[in-house]
Design goal:
The structure holds two protein chains of two kinds. Chain A is α/β, with parallel strands linked by helices. Chain A has three domains: 30 residues; 41 residues, no CATH class; 283 residues, no CATH class. Chain A is built from 13 helices and 15 strands. Chain A has an eight-stranded mixed beta sheet with strand order 7-6-15-13-14-12-10-11, sandwiched between helices. A three-stranded antiparallel beta sheet of chain A has the order 3-4-5. A two-stranded antiparallel ribbon of chain A has the order 1-2. In chain A, helix 11 links the parallel strand 13 and strand 14. The radius of gyration of chain A is 25 Å and the shape is globular. In chain B, helix 9 runs antiparallel to helix 10. The two termini of chain B are 35 Å apart. The relative contact order of chain B is 0.09. The C terminus of chain B is likely disordered. The chains are: A alpha/beta, B mainly alpha. At the A-B interface, helix 1, helix 3, helix 4 and helix 10 of A face helix 1, helix 9, helix 17, helix 18 and helix 20 of B.
């Protein structure tokens, strides 16, 4: 064949396409399968096992499809490219994460389906009626609720947020609620760093302000901010919002622990793992992506935090999602804490735990997102054998 | 398997091209049949046998029809033809329409005992390949073509993976010659690559993205619907369906060219039409041609009394609607176009020709958008509610803050959609490419970049962080 008769543009089209498809196909097959994505915190699909049954019921085809997507070479580059393309087109958001002001990226949802929320709220009410305890409920705002100042100018953040919040607070009518929304909004408005820029959690400072509100509600004196010495434990914290957004150009967050005199004398006990450590922090997580799990060792069903000074203290049962993790050290200065995470804890019913610990106070601290999706609070009233 | 998936692009396409071009010319149809059956069986492991059955039946009937013709027995040929048509339509009727008929017949007193078959799933692409198989037997009967003696070649025609699932619907007589000998060349392959890339980009970058916006607006809770939001939703759907379908057709045409087939164009910028009549000449052309050749003209077409002609048009549009799906909304959608086309035929078309262009454009798009509303809501009452929302019924808000936010942030994307619906980009491309070699090269590189961008969108759509916090 005489190559000269072909147009270079034709050669580029053909060769370009072929190089792409063969290049990716071969490198996908040759490179060993990755089993876990730290960025996404989930296991990845590896090459599926073949069986006649899985072929005929379509399972094999489905898994191959997932395999291709999960094991695609340069996967994270592709994800960045898409985020960049969406941004360049002026879409302001990608994968439901908006590009806010001052380096904030904020996960958001516009419309809310209250099906799960109504189950959760009903469960809280039922719990309040059937248990003789002093119950307080504190709902923490999502980033989109609190960081109004950082949301895109055109986005009607307050309207969207207030409507959703009102449904929840109305649904808890008759229960003592601690408002964490307005105080934190105000702090955020004043430019304080109360929620992470790349993660959906509040910062340690944000958790401190929540602690102040909770203490007020109990009629107790909180420790002043000056009492603590912030220790910067990471300046390279890339949170969940960052993982979701694919906007790799965003700068990382700074994570702090608020240290104080004698905080090492407390003991955090992870009940179902039968382990414990001194202080409130599992520093091994600081080396990983999931740094927020350093607070009280991350997600686990039941955690107890006690002071080792021998003094009798009141026990508080804290029913929480992960927003409770960075809050717990502050509360631990006043109470022995028995902390339950209803997403993981199934060993005993909540009322049995309360009876066992002899607690008179129960505090539910949930992020609005956890109230809206997933009906984990239904566990409050589930009786165990 | 769809073309716009990673497994198709990276594995199926790469492997099949390799095998196809590695084997000698005379074995290529067999390879094509085998890989097409694999393509089909991948998504429909059991229904692939139904397809093989269709191939065998129509192959045999093609031969019978031809033999009867040769032996001077037109009556025998006709009987064989009728038998073939009945078998093909019976298969289509059973798999696609059985449950529809049963569900509706049950409403008649005395027929409540009928029960729908719960596990009856629609075989993918059956509406397309049945029509192709039918066109073969009919073409043979009409002596437009000779019967295909080679079952592998015939099988390759019916299963041809590029257009198996969503067309264009190829008439046998159009590809008869290509089945026996076709051109395999780098320029044609390159042309196919470019058409394929254009289709891939339309599907992945435009249709999927517009589709997500449509889903967003459709999912707005009843009490938060607005007039503007409902319109935006419908407009994004209007773009989604066009870029989805025409993108898929382009991919099919492009893949066809890579292996030497030339299929007819299926779309010709339908949204620039100035009348509904024109719209249907530009939308899903291969289906229109099929109905014209195999239904309308055999019924007498327009060479008969006015009344019969109206009857013929009615039948065609009833069937066009029903072909799109076994549901009342599709029938209504078809008849809606029957009504519009009749009105245009009677007087409106002449008026439209004299009217200023923008009036005809707005008129056409307006009715096309309403057509899509009928099309997309299989649940007629949900469609009626949505229609109401578009005109302020059931909502008292014209535009919410969220609508404005969404409009502004999608305005550039909307502009891309509008522009891509017109022939302008292609014209500019053709103009530039003719002039300069450098531009041709640049455009080829742009095409390759478009593939990479499409891959990025495909990978991201699977990007599914299980966020540890949850919560």
């Amino acid at each position: 064949m005489n190559k000269k008769k072909y147009r270079l543009s034709d050669i580029i089209s053909v060769a370009g396409l072929l190089v792409i498809i063969y290049g990716f196909a071969v490198s996908m097959i040759l490179s060993p399968d990755k089993t876990f994505s730290e960025d996404e915190n989930r296991t990845l699909q590896t090459f599926p096992r073949f069986s006649f049954e899985s072929l005929t019921n379509g399972e094999f085809a489905e898994k191959i499809s997932k395999y291709c997507a999960d094991q695609m070479p340069l996967r994270s580059v592709f994800i960045d490219v898409k985020a960049a393309a969406e941004t360049l087109l002026g879409k302001v958001e990608n994968n439901n994460v908006v590009i806010g002001n001052d380096g904030y990226i904020i996960a958001k949802s516009d419309y809310t389906d209250f099906t799960d929320a109504d189950k959760n709220l009903g469960a809280i009410k039922e719990f309040a009626e059937s248990n003789e305890v002093q119950l307080r409920v504190a709902i923490a705002g999502r980033s989109q609720d609190v960081l109004l100042r950082y949301m895109p100018e055109l986005y009607p953040a307050k309207e969207v947020s207030d409507g959703t919040f009102a449904h929840v607070t109305d649904g808890l009518d008759g229960i003592t609620q601690i408002d964490l929304l307005e105080p934190l909004r105000q702090r955020a408005d004043e430019g304080e760093y109360v929620y992470y820029r790349t993660d959906h959690h509040w910062t340690t400072l944000g958790a401190y302000y929540a602690y102040v509100e909770i203490m007020d509600s109990y009629g107790l004196e909180p420790y002043p901010l000056e009492y603590f010495t912030p220790e910067v434990v990471s300046e390279e914290f890339y949170g969940t919002t960052w993982s979701k957004a694919g906007m790799k150009w965003v700068s990382p967050d700074t994570m702090e622990f608020f240290r104080f005199e004698g905080d090492d004398a407390y003991v955090t006990e992870i009940v179902e793992r039968e382990t414990s450590f001194d202080g409130f922090y599992d520093r091994s997580y600081l080396e990983k992506k999931d740094k927020y799990s350093a607070f009280i060792g991350g997600n686990s069903g039941r955690v107890r935090i006690t002071a080792q000074d021998g003094k009798e203290r009141e026990t508080l049962v804290l029913i929480k999602d992960s927003f409770g993790h960075s809050l717990a050290p502050f509360l631990a200065m006043h109470f022995d804490l028995d902390i339950l995470d209803l997403r993981y804890y199934t060993a005993q019913s909540v009322s049995d735990v309360i009876a066992e610990s002899g607690a008179g106070k129960v505090l539910i601290i949930y992020n609005l997102d956890s109230v809206l999706s997933g009906d984990t609070l239904v566990q409050l009233n589930v009786e165990m054998e | 398997m769809v073309f716009s998936s990673l497994e198709f692009l990276l594995f199926y396409l790469s492997v099949t091209l390799l095998i196809y071009f590695a084997v000698p010319l005379r074995a290529r149809n067999i390879v094509l049949l085998a890989v097409s059956l694999f393509f089909y069986g991948w998504g429909e492991p059991l229904y692939v046998f139904l397809m093989i059955f269709t191939i065998v039946v129509d192959y045999i009937f093609g031969l019978i029809v031809e033999r009867k013709r040769e032996r001077g027995s037109p009556k025998g040929a006709k009987t064989a033809l009728v038998a073939a048509v009945v078998i093909n339509l019976a298969i289509l009727g059973f798999f696609k329409y059985y449950n529809f008929f049963v569900t509706n017949l049950r409403l008649i007193p005395g027929l409540e005992w009928l029960s729908p078959l719960e596990n009856l799933e629609l075989p993918i692409g059956i509406s397309f390949y049945t029509f192709q198989a039918l066109s073969y037997v009919i073409d043979v009967y009409r002596m437009d073509t000779a019967a295909q003696k080679n079952i592998a070649s015939f099988g390759a025609y019916v299963t041809l993976y590029p257009q198996l699932i969503a067309g264009p619907i190829v008439r046998y007589k159009d590809v008869d010659d290509q089945l026996t000998s076709r051109e395999h060349s780098i320029p044609l392959f390159a042309e196919g690559t470019r058409t394929f890339i254009a289709g891939l980009s339309k599907k992945v970058l435009l249709a999927n993205t517009a589709g997500m916006l449509w889903e967003y607006f459709r999912a707005v809770p009843m009490d938060e619907r607005t007039v503007l939001g409902s319109w935006m939703g419908m407009i994004f759907f209007t773009f989604q369906i066009y870029f989805d379908f025409s993108g898929y057709s382009d991919m099919a045409i492009g893949l066809g060219k890579m292996i030497g087939f030339r299929f007819m164009e299926n779309f010709n910028y339908p949204y620039i039409s100035k009348s509904i009549t024109e719209f249907w000449r530009r939308w899903h052309i291969s289906l229109g041609v099929w109905f014209r050749d195999y239904v309308y003209i055999p019924l007498g077409g327009n060479r008969c009394s006015k009344l019969k002609q109206i009857r013929n048009i009615f039948i065609v549009w009833f069937l066009t609607g029903f072909w799109h799906g076994a549901s009342w909304n599709f029938i209504i959608w078809g008849l809606y176009y029957f009504a519009l086309l009749m009105i245009e035929k009677l007087f409106l078309l002449k008026k439209l020709e004299k009217a200023p262009a923008f009036v005809s454009h707005i008129y056409t798009l307006f009715f096309v958008v309403f057509g899509w509303l009928l099309f997309v809501f299989e649940d007629l009452s949900a469609g009626a509610v949505y229609l109401g929302n578009m005109f302020g019924v059931g909502t008292d808000t014209f535009a919410s803050g969220l609508d404005i936010y969404n409009l502004v942030r999608n305005i550039a994307f909307l502009a891309v959609l509008v522009l891509a619906s017109t022939p302008l980009p292609k014209k500019i491309y053709a103009h530039l490419v003719e002039r300069s070699r450098a531009v041709r090269i640049v455009m080829s590189v742009v095409g390759i970049l478009a593939v990479i961008l499409s891959l990025a969108y495909l990978v991201n759509s699977s990007y599914n962080p299980f966020l540890y916090y949850k919560f």
